[in-house]
């Protein structure tokens, strides 16, 4: 028991070390050579956008690759750029990226600053719990439970409105919540079901965690574009439509989320909205 | 600009920042004084312990201490300070701030002790005062007066370092940095928002700098 605790402490510390080390290694030195396209993705979300060595994997990455190919770019022409949530609007406004495919929910506030094509996926806020925990079946069972989320995120604000007496711990990233969830210090982790499914199917957590499967919000993932670029928007929308029509969409969902037993919620696959 | 203050409790967030600063300052002063006394004590073991404390905590990143306090001490070792997770994180944040800055306070005080001519300590012992008495009556009062300026710098650093508490506090009991995260998530990053928070910190720290400079001149021991 004691040795396990020490190991667990060491693990927590190593997470913290990883945190302090996660500054920006800027590989965005050369500015667009005309024939390349810069796409913003997440680098740290398994199943959606994950950087492993020099490889990029995940649903968002696959969708972005498909769209870029439809627009006439080769896979080698794509330059992946990390797009952390708080910087997404600025990166599009200043042209650091041409488009963002990074669990980017379409909201009215964001529409004032950037343009959106899509949605290409409808996610919902859900709960991730220990596989042997049968006491949480939906968001209504959360009263008195300990919950973890990322500070300032829409999911964290949302759950505060939904559950009055919520007992919430907030960290910087979801990865920091996971050890506490596994060890039992926290009962549930909340955010979009897609992100949770990605964590549940990660090698080190397989079989230990499960997604509840009762989404209590609707997040429309769109492709973020520079505001007012209707030509680009039309191209991307066409690409998304053909991706859904030719069956690629379902293939990508199965390939990226299949292992966790996660199935997309109601409304999927979505119909992309027309460009304004 | 006006609705930013209407929609978000920015003043309330800065109030949490002030609370963290005050509690952290008191904690750091208490621990720091003890460590400083250990460092100048005649007992070798205490001196080593004091030096070890300063070297460990002064050279550890505060982010790490903060995260370790909740993720390590509270969640894995079970040393929770409250059943409410946000209160627990708040108390651990105060402890982390105290423990971290105590190292700096101890060094400031030790430098204060070093400004006192060695003859005074020898004279105090010569008239029969114990170590404790000579510390209390002769050395520490002068050390504090000599260390006002560096203590002021430490306080200013502490006020700004409260933003690191956002690592564990998040937005459940937001201090300034946590509130900035909420605003950024909902409204996107803008220069104006950053400006407001920056000005808030200047308002908090600038008067303290002026006050401590004045105080250090006024209270300096004339020799």
How is this fold's topology laid out?
The complex is a heterodimer of chains A (276) and B (223).
Chain A: H1 2-20, E1 37-41, E2 44-45, E3 49-52, E4 55-57, H2 59-70, E5 78-82, H3 88-93, E6 99-100, H4 108-111, E7 115-123, E8 125-130, E9 146-150, H5 154-162, E10 167-171, H6 174-183, E11 188-192, H7 193-200, E12 209-211, E13 219-225, H8 230-245, H9 248-257
Parallel strand pairs in A: 1-5, 1-6, 9-10, 9-11
Antiparallel strand pairs in A: 2-3, 3-4, 6-13, 7-13, 8-11, 8-12
Chain B: H1 2-7, H2 10-40, H3 44-58, H4 62-74, H5 85-114, H6 118-126, H7 131-146, H8 148-161, H9 166-169, H10 176-187, H11 191-219
Helix pairs in contact in B: 2-3, 2-5, 2-10, 3-5, 4-5, 5-7, 5-8, 6-7, 8-11
Walk me through this protein's architecture.
The complex is a heterodimer of chains A (276) and B (223). Chain A is α/β, with parallel strands linked by helices. Chain A contains 9 helices and 13 strands. Chain A folds into 2 domains: 35-123 and 220-260, Periplasmic binding protein-like II (D-Maltodextrin-Binding Protein, domain 2, 3-Layer(aba) Sandwich); 125-211, D-Maltodextrin-Binding Protein, domain 2 (3-Layer(aba) Sandwich), CATH 3.40.190. In chain A, the strands form 3 sheets. A 5-stranded mixed β-sheet of chain A has the order 5-1-6-13-7. Chain A has a 5-stranded mixed β-sheet with strand order 10-9-11-8-12, sandwiched between helices. In chain A, strands 2-3-4 form a 3-stranded antiparallel β-sheet. Mean pLDDT of chain A is 81; it is low at 20-33. Chain B is mainly alpha-helical and 223 residues long. The longest helix of chain B has 31 residues, at 10-40. The termini of chain B are far apart. The mean pLDDT of chain B is 90. Classes of the chains: A alpha/beta (276), B mainly alpha (223). Chain A binds chain B through residues 5, 8-9, 12-13, 15-17, 19-20, 85-87, 89-90, 109-110, 113, 146-147, 149-154, 156-157, 167-172, 176, 179-180, 183, 185-186, and chain B through 61, 63-64, 67-68, 70-72, 74-78, 83-86, 89, 166-172, 178, 181-182, 184-189.
